[in-house]
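Input (structure):
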């Protein structure tokens, strides 16, 4: 697959700082491609990528350095840091994209858990938060998943982009669910930001124009 296969046109996002959180899905292996796509076709965006512990099973930070326009960070609170990483995320990001979002991460966010910097930032964000779930066979029919999607969709700042049919790496059958394409996620970010514009809570955070 080459970048042109997924299209290059898209809306004006109205943001130039995107926090992309990748979780422990096999679809995370495609992240180097998407980082290159974003750098090529969305050069106005500075993208910081956050990797959860599970994401490290499918992509290495070294595969992203040089492709991404911002930093590549772990979803942890390092003891050596003198600042709170979740606050850094909140102050810097103008939009948060969780791509791909596993069933587990989606559930944790819906349940209000905040046991990692990215989760705490997403729970407290007043900017658009968009999830692109990647699910196993039967995932979209799960009552638990559907309940979590309803909970998240009811939040003013959060949207869930439906997954696409995919082939399971275990069964080899087309019964799995791949995350929405990144361009479609950006469209949802633009749409949600438009809805939030004018709201006194939907502030454009500019205190830190660049992550330090």
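Output (sequence):
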């Amino acid at each position: 697959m080459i970048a042109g296969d997924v299209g290059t046109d898209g809306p004006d996002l109205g943001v130039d700082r995107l926090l992309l959180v990748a979780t422990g899905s096999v679809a995370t292996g495609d992240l180097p491609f998407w980082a290159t796509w974003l750098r090529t076709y969305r050069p106005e965006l500075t993208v910081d990528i956050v990797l959860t512990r599970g994401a490290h099973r499918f992509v290495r930070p070294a595969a992203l350095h040089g492709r991404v326009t911002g930093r590549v960070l772990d979803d942890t609170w390092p003891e050596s840091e003198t600042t709170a990483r979740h606050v850094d995320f909140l102050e810097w990001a103008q939009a948060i994209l969780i791509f791909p979002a596993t069933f587990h991460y989606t559930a944790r966010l819906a349940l209000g858990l905040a046991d990692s910097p990215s989760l705490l930032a997403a729970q407290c964000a007043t900017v658009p938060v968009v999830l692109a779930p990647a699910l196993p066979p039967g995932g979209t029919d799960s009552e638990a998943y559907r309940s979590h999607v309803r909970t998240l969709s009811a939040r003013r700042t959060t949207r869930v982009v439906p997954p696409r049919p995919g082939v399971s790496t275990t069964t080899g059958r087309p019964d799995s669910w791949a995350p929405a394409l990144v361009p479609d996620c950006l469209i949802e970010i633009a749409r949600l930001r438009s809805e939030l514009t004018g709201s006194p809570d939907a502030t454009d955070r500019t205190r830190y124009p660049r992550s330090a």
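Notes: The two ends are 34 Å apart (CA to CA). The domain at 17-30+41-93+104-198 is CATH 3.40.50.1950 (Rossmann fold).
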